């Protein structure tokens, strides 16, 4: 199997519809800004962008502060990691441990929501983020729903279901009108449970080995696949599209660079997940301008 986009394999931590980029006459580039690139790309069918953990480079991951900036940057998806507190509340945190991103220690699942809210989610960030708290799923949904109510270009949720039951997750997203356009990444077992609760929810299993494709389609009836970049080929993307399936790819860490965005665009993937939003927009727009 060809490795990641014809390049040497990369280590990836993670996880719109494209029909080809139309090339045309290009206005002079006035500024290196997301607003300009988005305006230019909105006129063409292009790859969509997901902000990994809401990352913007301006605020701590998986916080309301960074989600607000991601919304202002008009991303198509904000990826969030959902977990459950000791008292059954849903909150947003990537790690199972509090150690890396908060001033707490130990397993987050052993804390109540009130206890989690006493912590700072701004560990290692600027002093201005010391008061940033671990957000609840309700707070994130309220933020995104309010934004979408006042903006034509909508931002959807990419829900990484770390440790959560399907029923409360579906209930909250339904309450805020975000269920239908959200995508749900998780284990095959979780996605099967999600399908029972919300048959039309857009499940997205991982595809780490191509020989698992047929079995996963039959068992999960997915909306999309999160394809490992080391397994990604043009032939696989075409095969999935022919079956009406979307292709998401994480381009993180060593892969979060323009050469990989270009390769993803050439292969026709639907969504790029990134920590470098501006770099992705810049690369896609300049590719379309040639």
Plain-language structure description:
α1 (34-41) packs across α10 (277-289) and α9 (258-267) crosses α10 (277-289). β1 (48-51), α2 (64-72) and β2 form a beta-alpha-beta unit. The model is unreliable at 7-30 (pLDDT under 50). The protein is α/β, with parallel strands linked by helices and 290 residues long. It has one domain: TIM Barrel. The radius of gyration is 19 Å and the shape is globular. The two termini are 31 Å apart. The chain is built from 10 helices and 10 strands. Strands 1, 2, 3, 4, 5, 6, 7, 8, 9 and 10 form a 10-stranded mixed beta sheet that branches. The protein has helices at 34-41, 64-72, 113-116, 137-149, 166-175, 188-197, 213-220, 234-242, 258-267, 277-289; strands at 48-51, 77-84, 90-92, 156-161, 183-185, 202-204, 206-207, 224-227, 246-250, 271-274.
In short:
Helix 2 (64-72) packs parallel to helix 4 (137-149) and helix 9 (258-267) crosses helix 10 (277-289).
- The CATH class is identified as Alpha Beta
CATH homologous superfamily designation:
Phosphatidylinositol (PI) phosphodiesterase
Into how many domains do the coordinates divide?
A: 1
Spatial shape: globular
Largest sheet: 10 strands, mixed
Distance between the termini: 31 Å
What's the mean pLDDT score? 88
Structural class: alpha/beta
Which parts are unreliable, with pLDDT below 50 for 5 consecutive residues or more?
7-30
Encode the helix/strand succession as letters: HEHEEHHEHEHEEHEHEHEH
Architecture, CATH level 2? Alpha-Beta Barrel
Strand content: 5-15%
């Amino acid at each position: 199997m060809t490795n990641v986009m014809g390049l040497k394999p990369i280590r990836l931590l993670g996880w719109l519809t494209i029909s080809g980029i139309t090339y045309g006459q290009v206005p002079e580039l006035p500024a290196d800004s997301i607003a300009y690139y988005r305006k230019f790309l909105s006129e063409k069918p292009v790859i969509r962008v997901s902000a990994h953990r809401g990352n913007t480079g301006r605020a701590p991951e998986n916080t309301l502060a960074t989600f607000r900036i991601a919304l202002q940057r008009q991303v198509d998806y904000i990826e969030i990691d959902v977990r459950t507190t000791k008292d059954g509340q849903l909150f947003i945190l990537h790690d199972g441990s509090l150690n890396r991103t908060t001033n707490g220690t130990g397993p987050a699942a052993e804390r109540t929501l009130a206890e989690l809210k006493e912590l700072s989610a701004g560990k290692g960030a600027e002093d201005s983020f010391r008061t940033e708290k671990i957000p609840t799923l309700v707070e994130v949904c309220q933020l995104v729903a309010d934004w979408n109510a006042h903006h034509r270009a909508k931002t959807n949720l990419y829900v990484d279901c770390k440790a959560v039951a399907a029923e409360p997750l579906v209930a909250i997203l339904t309450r805020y009108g975000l269920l239908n356009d959200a995508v749900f990444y998780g284990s095959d077992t979780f996605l099967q449970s999600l399908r029972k609760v919300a048959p039309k929810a857009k499940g997205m299993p991982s595809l780490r080995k191509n020989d698992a494709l047929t079995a996963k389609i039959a068992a999960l009836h997915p909306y999309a696949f999160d394809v490992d970049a080391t397994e990604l080929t043009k032939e696989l993307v075409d095969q999935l599209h022919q079956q009406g399936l979307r292709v998401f790819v994480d381009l993180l860490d060593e892969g979060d660079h323009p050469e990989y965005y270009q390769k993803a665009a050439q292969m026709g993937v639907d969504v790029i997940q990134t920590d470098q939003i501006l770099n992705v927009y810049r690369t896609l727009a300049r590719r379309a301008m040639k």
